[in-house]
């Protein structure tokens, strides 16, 4: 199952500032596409990796009317990137610098970014570090305020433990954890999600991530308010912005989306029907909204 979706891209490696190896998928523009169009850089969630974007990246890079080059990144400690011996480096600040290193290595001076969850938080930081890099941004089920209830749920299921014996068991575990929030998914969608999240390790199916990243959530003090990023969010005023919220999301609230609109009235917002945190962007109808946004940026 792990080898079922391995076409349409070039696997590349880049050395981070500290020498750690970062991995990425580079989906080239279809041969008859416009090589001058701005590339799209996809940034995954906390414990996720470039495989999350495979179906989306194929669709965008092979689009008959508006094909784009798509880059999907594995952060350090995820996917095919190296695991960091210094676990404190699993931070948004370090990962933001890694994104800049990748862009510099690939010669990307300007791009449209898609940030899912953690990836969207990184985009908040990039608006301050190198605003000229962002021609547009998509915040996928993330904003300046994270709902504590949703983060606690993520903390709990990521640290629940247990290994699947086969891919069917892995799919069943995903459905048990997320099924009520993702009513729009069919059987193939669940299998693709499993292939993106897990890999085979010593005869078992395990999450494709350094366990230390999930364990760090156990240290969060939920008795205190979570910090917000409103100051950083305001920098999106100068950037084309699409905010997507999962209909059943417990991490990004409708109230936060409304305040985002009030602060930046021109932003585009969309709801991924039948999905929770975080929506799969290649599914209709959210893909149509995303494609429409990209067409103008």
In brief, what are we looking at here?
With 297 residues, the chain is α/β, with parallel strands linked by helices. The protein has helices at 54-61, 92-106, 118-129, 148-158, 167-178, 187-197, 211-215, 230-233, 254-263, 286-295, and strands at 10-15, 21-27, 40-43, 70-74, 111-116, 134-140, 198-201, 204-207, 240-246, 268-272.
Could you explain the architecture of this structure?
Helices cover 33% and strands 19% of the residues. The strands form 2 sheets. It has an 8-stranded mixed sheet with strand order 1-2-4-3-5-6-9-10, sandwiched between helices. Strands 7-8 form a two-stranded antiparallel ribbon. It has a domain at 10-147 and 228-295: Alpha/Beta hydrolase fold, catalytic domain (Rossmann fold, 3-Layer(aba) Sandwich). The mean pLDDT is 95. Strand 9, helix 9 (254-263) and strand 10 form a beta-alpha-beta unit. It has helices at 54-61, 92-106, 118-129, 148-158, 167-178, 187-197, 211-215, 230-233, 254-263, 286-295, and strands at 10-15, 21-27, 40-43, 70-74, 111-116, 134-140, 198-201, 204-207, 240-246, 268-272.
Radius of gyration: 18 Å
Q: Major beta sheet, specifics? A: 8 strands, mixed
| The CATH superfamily title of the domain at 10-147 and 228-295 | Alpha/Beta hydrolase fold, catalytic domain
CATH top level label of the domain at 10-147 and 228-295: Alpha Beta
CATH level 3 topology of the domain at 10-147 and 228-295: Rossmann fold
Compute the number of strand runs.
Answer: 10
Which CATH architecture of the domain at 10-147 and 228-295? 3-Layer(aba) Sandwich
Strand order of the largest sheet: 1-2-4-3-5-6-9-10
Structural class: alpha/beta
Number of alpha- plus pi-helical segments: 10
